[in-house]
Give the backbone structure.
Amino acid sequence: MSEIKGLDVAIMGREFRVACPEDEQEALLQSVDYLDRKMREIRDSGKVIGVERIAIMAALNITHELLNTRIAGSFDIGEFKSRINAMQAQIEQAMTEQDELF
């Protein structure tokens, strides 16, 4: 288990100190960068005013992305394989037809 250390981060120009295990600092910094970008996008749209409201909208948007990813992640693998095989057959047929032209 790695030691928990304080890490200084900035989100929308505001400084925060967060406790984080040493081996998770890189992932935390990536999360901070993602959150900062999302909050700036919301602020720059001009539709939401106030850091607290921007943070809530960013949290809702990120949660929505996560839930959609989870739902999309539970797809039918059999259907996926079938579609890949069909595409592969179409590609092979197109390549055969192309070879016959030349």
About this structure: Residues 4-101 form a domain with the Double Stranded RNA Binding Domain fold (CATH 3.30.160.880). The first helix runs from residue 25 to 45. Strands lie at 4-11, 14-21. The radius of gyration is 23 Å.
